[in-house]
Amino acid sequence: MALQSEDASVTHRIAKAFPALSAAHRQVARFVLDHPLKVATLPVNELADLVGVSVATANRFARAVGYEGYAKFRAALVLSYEKALAPVEKLRVGRDQPATVPEILDGALADIIRNIEATRRTLDGATCTQAVQAIHQARRVYVVGLGSSSWPAGILARNLDVNREDVHLLATLEGPGFAARTLRRLTPDDLVVVLATPRYFADTVRLAQIARRHGAAVLALTDGPHSPLVATATLALYAQTDCHYFAASDASLTALVEALASAFAFAAGDLVPAATRVTEAVLPWLDRDYAAWPPQGGADDLSETPQSGAAS
């Protein structure tokens, strides 16, 4: 069989070769088409076991669909799903390196520290200033974050709301449909802040594109110039999000969000009136003894916990 173009996708190669495949090879092909992500993480012996064929058959299947062998076939699958598979591949590499729970905790915290430090070092001062100005000058600010990015998006909206009006969080249970309906009201005076790190939600990219079509400014908080949000954004700030156990670390994006909100709060002027208004608004919902911190008499008062049934 003549080798097909190197640019042909794995799915295309399988579809083209399928009529000429043997029964055993068709069995492998069906499994690959049904579970491409799973197969991309499997060595040849594990694939053979799952499908119920020999290792030799699995290797011959790879050659039958146009690859030099299973290693090349799997590499093509991994390339197709590189971003989505990143955490799976890291776990596969690390599973044969035993570690204790304290070592894992220490390593994860060290990764977070490195990410935040790298984020701090690479921030561009001029872009940070423009981002704060954009938040200040916008008529309305909409914050969009889906999936894991919905949590730092909520923190950003909450913190911006302390110092300016018309901040709207579009990360809701209703999902991107609600966001799309809300964004139809955008004007060129509005700002949309979009957050996304690997794995990037396609809906986040689409919502950013909708915002630009309405003429609104788009501030992207993402993980680097390679992010699909950057092509649409008018401004972008980057957080390093390397992580051994998940697709991306949320800690550094959250740190960037808090830093941005802090810079905006400082630029907004006197912080005391805004903080006072927020405190007065939430005071009825605070536990009376903990509304101020430390408690009256100092934090040392907490060391003496009243015994059950003791006289007050």
Question: Describe it for me?
Answer:
This protein is of the alpha/beta class. It contains 14 helices and five strands. It has helices at 10-17, 23-34, 36-40, 44-51, 55-64, 70-80, 82-94, 101-122, 125-137, 150-161, 176-183, 202-213, 250-267, 271-282, and strands at 141-145, 167-169, 191-195, 217-222, 235-238. The longest helix has 22 residues, at 101-122. The protein starts with 9 loop residues before the first helix and ends in a 30-residue tail after the last helix.
Number of helices: 14
Shape: elongated
Widest sheet: strand ordering: 2-1-3-4-5
Helix content: 40-55%
The N- and C-terminal alpha carbons lie at a distance of 89 Å
SSE string, helices as H and strands as E:
HHHHHHHHHEHEHEHEEHH
Please describe the biggest sheet, giving its number of strands, its sense, and whether it closes into a barrel. Answer: 5 strands, parallel
Strand content: 5-15%
Q: From the helix content, strand content and strand pairing, which structural class follows?
A: alpha/beta
Number of strands: 5
Gyration radius, in Å = 26 Å
Mean pLDDT score: 83
Low-confidence runs of at least 5 consecutive residues? 1-7, 301-312
